Amino acid sequence: MRALLAAAVALVVALLVAPAAFGAAPAAEIRGPDGSLIAAASRSPFAYPRDGSVLRVGSMASTAGGLELRDVSVLGGAVQAARLLVPSRGLAGASVEGLSVGGRAEPGQANTLLSLGGPSYLVVLQEAVVPDSAPGVVGLRVYVGSAQRGLPAGAQILVGLARAKVAPPKREEHATAQPFWVLGVTPPVSSSAPPLLGVPDPFAGARATSPLGERAVAIAERYLGVPYVWAGADPTGFDCSGLVMFVYRQLGIALPHFSGSQWYSGLRVPLDDLRAGDLVFFDMGPNGPGHVGLYIGDGRFIEAPHSGAVVQISTLFDPSRALSYVGAVRPY
User: Hey, where are the domains in the chain?
Assistant: First the structure.
């Protein structure tokens, strides 16, 4: 009996001093430039690496509506927060208390972009997509623009991830051996639609009566396969903002030829309200987002990605796109 009592006491002590488990889904993640997972925080206190010089979280706990984190330090204290409340959905009730950046107090307002020097920056309470997760809010998203503290340039530190896991999109049957994020997605075939650059136009039969955004998608699909050309804005070659500008010009809507300006050319759209024709933005920089695409639906969008590529259909579930997602705008 004495031995049994001693064992029970030892077990209680072990539970009291052990790190607290948060749950199956991590409350914070560190990801590489390609979206690969470097470290995940599912217990508190958490430190990465062991000295906590990249990320330290004092405590994390589930709440009725999301997640609460306390005593957060990122990049050796360059970013600090006393308390984060991150809802599972939307920004209602979200807050960041005791936020300081570079030793200076900041208000911690949603979707605030703060420079961390050079190409590195912080986004506060940002609606975002994270690989293998449903859309939600990231409490603090730190983009590491230059290699430091053992992290490569382009790494991201995501603190406060309160959302449920979701299954990835269904794969095409002919390509099940490939990861879902590298699959090309073919638009639905319409028997009455003639092929345009080898791609069926699903809205050809109802273009005059379709919603404006769907008409924008139908126009953009005509130019799948057109080569990327820097500053291009016609069917001989497009860059990202040139494609979007050209498409909406056909519908009587004038947009500037710069993604940073297009970011201000409409109403902000939350992830759970994205519709065909919305503009989706990526790669936030000091002059605004550096890349834009045209949303189709089901997480897919049309883009002119970069030199050497062509106008193509991509997906928000691609880790590199998910981690660089900034937000969306409806330009009409």
Answer: 19-161, 173-330
Please tell me the CATH code under which domain 173-330 is placed.
3.90.1720.10
| Residue 97 burial (10 A CB sphere; 0-12, 13-18, 19+) | exposed
Between residues 145 and 80, the one the model is more confident about: 80
For the chain, state the CA radius of gyration.
23
- For 23-58, how does the pLDDT look when each residue is reduced to its tens digit (9 = 90+)? 557 899 998 877 788 999 988 899 999 999 999 999
Q: Give exposure, 272-293, as e/b (b: 16+ Cβ within 10 Å).
A: eebbbbbbbbbbbbeebbbbbb
Residue 141 CA to residue 127 CA, distance in Å, equals 10
Structure token digits, residue 282: 């990526």
CA dist 123 and 114 (Å) reads 6
The three-class DSSP label of residue 5 is: helix
* 3 state DSSP class of 139: strand
User: Rounded to whole angstroms, how far apart are CA atoms 219 and 291?
Assistant: 20
User: How many Å separate Cα 79 from the centre of its chain?
Assistant: 20
Q: Provide the edge-to-edge strand list for the sheet that holds 112-115.
A: 37-41, 28-31, 155-161, 136-144, 121-128, 112-115
Contact 249, 217 (CB under 8 A): no
User: What is Dmax (Cα atoms) for the chain?
Assistant: 86
